[in-house]
Amino acid sequence: NAGVMQNPRHLVRRRGQEARLRCSPMKGHSHVYWYRQLPEEGLKFMVYLQKENIIDESGMPKERFSAEFPKEGPSILRIQQVVRGDSAAYFCASSPTIAGTDTQYFGPGTRLTVL
Amino acid sequence: GENVEQHPSTLSVQEGDSAVIKCTYSDSASNYFPWYKQELGKRPQLIIDIRSNVGEKKDQRIAVTLNKTAKHFSLHITETQPEDSAVYFCAAITGTASKLTFGTGTRLQVTL
């Protein structure tokens, strides 16, 4: 049973470009969460999605950031017009569908560097 | 919203000694408390978790205790080994929110 997959593992962008980060949850998991970790800091919640639905986006900046989890394919976190402050590790986590099961399993992360 | 505080920020122990990391949370409705271990450049890895209906849980050298009245929970690592060296994060989930609120992390260094 493969774990949570993320790609790319490393992404370098110049200021003003777009970054697309992908996350495939564990098999049987339909809940996806995105977290951001700045260097030497803890993880901060960004967005929680289920298939074709954004459940909670309270941690995601209103401008430039968007997320989706389509019926088919991975979840995507999109950052438009990146700035240096977007440089961070972005982790995706997934949890099972069963109600009351809260355990979240993390992917290896995408390390975004904005030049 | 939920707020989680974690202490200490750094902890150095000698191999074989015990390590204790403490966290407090603000939302009395929080009901799930996982602990993650993160090695440098790696993903957070779940090491133990506890739900609000129990006060203690143990898994080999690792244990977690929960005091719902005081709203704090602690991670205990006994017989520490060099491979325990990492950053440890506590977290909490409020039942209806599903999102994890993390503490600020504790850098544990186990010295020989």
Summarize the structure.
The complex is a heterodimer of chains A (115) and B (112). Chain A has 115 residues and is mainly β. Chain A is built from no helices and eleven strands.
Distance between the termini of chain A: 37 Å
Largest interface: A-B, 24 and 20 residues
Helix content of chain B: under 10%
Which consecutive residue ranges of chain A, at least 5 long each, have pLDDT under 50?
A: none
Can you give the mean pLDDT of chain A?
A: 92
Q: Using the alpha-carbon principal axes, give the shape of chain A.
A: globular
What spatial form of chain B do the alpha-carbon principal axes imply?
globular
Beta-strand percentage range of chain A:
over 45%
Largest sheet of chain B: 6 strands, mixed
Topology order of chain B in helix (H) and strand (E) letters: EEEEEEEEEEE
Query: How many strands in all of chain B?
Result: 11
Going by helix content, strand content and strand pairing, the class of chain B is mainly beta
Secondary structure tally: strands of chain A: 11
> Could you state the order of secondary-structure elements of chain A as H and E?
EEEEEEEEEEE
Rg of chain A (C-alpha, Å): 13 Å
Name the beta content range of chain B: over 45%
Rg of chain B computed from alpha carbons, rounded to a whole number of angstroms:
13 Å
Helix content of chain A: under 10%
Oligomerization state: heterodimer
User: How can the largest sheet of chain A be summarized?
Assistant: 7 strands, mixed
Question: What's the end-to-end separation of chain B, in Å?
Answer: 41 Å
Give a structural overview.
The complex is a heterodimer of chains A (115) and B (112). Chain A is mostly beta strands and 115 residues long. Helices cover 0% and strands 51% of the residues of chain A. Chain A is built from no helices and eleven strands. Chain A has strands at residues 5-7, 10-13, 19-24, 29-37, 43-50, 53-56, 65-68, 75-79, 88-96, 105-106, 110-114. In chain A, strands 2, 4, 5, 6, 9, 10 and 11 form a seven-stranded mixed sheet that branches. In chain A, strands 1-3-8-7 form a four-stranded antiparallel sheet, with no helix packed on it. The N and C termini of chain A lie far apart (37 Å). Chain B has strands at residues 4-7, 10-14, 19-25, 30-38, 45-51, 56-59, 62-67, 72-77, 86-94, 101-102, 106-111. In chain B, strands 2, 4, 5, 9, 10 and 11 form a six-stranded mixed sheet that branches. Chain B has a five-stranded antiparallel sheet with strand order 1-3-8-7-6, with no helix packed on it. Classes of the chains: A mainly beta (115), B mainly beta (112). Chain A binds chain B through residues 31, 33, 35, 41-45, 48, 55-56, 58-59, 91, 93, 95, 102-109, and chain B through 32, 34, 36, 42-46, 49, 89, 93, 97-105.
